Amino acid sequence: MGIGDPAVGGWPLRRRLGVTYTVAATVMLVLVGLVSWSLMRLDDAIHTRSDVLAPALLSSTQLVGSLVDQETGMRGYLLQGSEDFLTPYNTGRTVERARMDDLRRRLADQPDLLGRVAALEARIRAWHVDYADPAITAVRARGPAAARTVPLELGKTRFDAVRAAATDLESGLRARAATARREVNSALRFLVIALAITAAALVALLRLIAWALRSWVTRPIEQVAANARTVASGHLDHIVEPTGPPDIVALAADVESMRQQLIGELGVARSARSAVEAQAEVLRQSNRDLEQFAYVASHDLQEPLRKVASFCQLLERRYGDKLDERGTQYIAFAVDGAKRMQQLINDLLAFSRVGRTSESFVEVELGELFTRATTTLSMRIESLRAEVTAAELPTVRGDPVLLTQLLVNLIGNALKFRGEALPTVHVGVEQRADEWEFSCADNGIGIDPEYAEKIFVIFQRLHGREVYEGTGIGLALCRKIVEFHGGRIWLDAEARPGTTFRFTLPRHSVLVPMTEPAALVHGDGTVSPAGGTP
After folding, report:
1. How far is Cα 243 from Cα 229, in angstroms, rounded to an integer?
2. DSSP letter for each residue of 500-519
3. Are 342 and 468 part of one and the same domain?
4. Which residues of the chain have pLDDT under 70?
5. Would you state the torsion angle of the CA atoms of residues 111, 115, 118, 124, taken in this order, to the nearest 10 degrees?
6. If DSSP codes are grouped into helix, strand and coil, which group holds residue 491?
7. Beta pairing, strands 387-390 & 527-529
């Protein structure tokens, strides 16, 4: 049955495969039955030969041997009259009965052989009744001389009849054993032939199933997949041809419907693309304007601010004695505003530069960056007699300038919001599965947990400028730097007393010793290895 056969052309795939599997299963059941029958036949033949005829032959041989022993023992007794000579006779009688019972049991399903056993048993009985038993009785009664009264010719005749019957039984058993041997060989050949036929049929059925799967499933699906790949590569004008069973035809129709839908959506996408490109050009122009603004802010705007601050200070020095207290205060306000404006511009510029490019990323040792940060803050550390320590910090991949700024901001923030005790700041680190978790802990005034997110928003302040100086950009800049490096930063609300900030950085290298030992910056400005956490 092929794909185009009228008999199966409209059959669903499930029905086609079901018929194929049913035919294959029926053939296999017939072949399995044939093999099973062959095995049963071989088993029966082997049983007849090995468990019936071979033991029967052995019993027949032993039976004849027991009869010979009886005849020999009886002759000795007739000559000597001693009971010791009857031992072989009595033993032979016992063996005779056992072997005769075994023959009757084993040959119960062999009537012709059982008849020969009966004939042999009758002749043995006749030998005993007509000759052996009377002779033994006479000798026991009158002594060895009485043996002359027993007709020896009768005994010979009866025992020759026993021998003839035993020979007849043995001949029948051997003939039947030869027949059983031929039956075993025949059954074995038939089993081999049946197994060969079964193996050939199994191979043929497997090839039939493979052909059916190839013709009805894989080949049509491959054709639909090839058409789909052609469409996916950009040739939307390529028509997906239906082929195969109705199920595959329906699949091809769905793919063709998707192609038609893609053609329709492509027109919409092209229109949207033009709009996006126009918007992108607007954004590029806006970026150029922002870069120009940054340049102006960093150069042109800061120069007038410096002039305002300088000339206000000149006014104060030259005309200070002519100004009253209110005028001096106004000049101080102007100078302070200009300086704060200049700091604000610098912080905004630093904030805007973060995240533009990661090309400056290198392997940096945070231990060295910690030393740089404490050097930058050394004057403030010395003036506050603060103690700044760090654990053994790892090597990470990042921008050394930005990471140094991160440490400067966090340590500087801890020094700014200090308490009444001498400030202590400790930078620690813990290794996680795929990142480093850092902490910056101090003994300062602390932060209420309800402001845990607000403090990272640009320009958000929890204290007035008259209490604590700053622009409100420091922690926002820290968050932007950490996120730019693929990490996150947060306030540890459970750490008390003081404030603890935690942040993570991806772990790209193992923990290595710092170029300089973990630093401890003392109030007098000296630096020594850290002795532990604060």
Report:
1. 16
2. EEEEEEE--S-----SSPPE
3. no
4. 1-10, 13, 145-150, 234, 236, 244-245, 247-248, 262, 286-307, 309, 311, 316, 319-323, 328-330, 332-333, 335-360, 451-452, 458-472, 508-534
5. -140
6. strand
7. unpaired
Beta strands 387-390 and 424-431 are parallel
pLDDT (tens digit, 9 = 90+) per residue, 64-95? 888 888 888 877 877 777 777 788 888 888 88
Task: Give residue-wise pLDDT tens across range 207-237.
Answer: 878 887 777 777 777 777 777 777 777 676 7
Looking at the structure, tell me whether residues 338 and 205 fall in a common domain.
no
| Full residue range of the structural domain in which residue 100 is found | 13-223
pLDDT in tens, 119-136: 888 888 888 888 888 878
In this structure, the answer to whether residues 182 and 102 fall within a common structural domain is yes
- Candidates 247, 206, 216, 188; CA nearest to 35 is 188
For residues 70 and 427, give the distance between their C-alpha atoms in angstroms, rounded to a whole number. Answer: 114
Within-domain flag for 385: yes
Residue 6 lies in a domain: no
Phi, psi for 323 (deg, rounded to 5): -95, 145
One domain, residues 171 and 96: yes
How much is the pTM?
0.39
438 lies in the same domain as 396 = yes
User: Which residues, 6 or more positions from 60, have their beta carbon under 8 angstroms from its beta carbon?
Assistant: 99, 103, 166, 169, 170, 173
**The pair of three-digit structure tokens given for residue 339, joined into one six-digit string:** 């300086």
| pLDDT at residue 288, as a whole number | 62
Confirm if 455 and 489 have CB atoms less than 8 A apart.
no
Angle CA(70)–CA(170)–CA(60) in degrees, nearest 5?
45
Task: Tell me which residue of 29, 22, 40, 31 sits closest to 199, measured CA to CA.
Answer: 31
Phi, psi (degrees; rounded to nearest 5) at 520? -125, 110
Q: CB burial class (10 A; 0-12, 13-18, 19+) of residue 92?
A: buried
Q: Of the residues 180, 202, 223, which one is the last residue of a structural domain?
A: 223
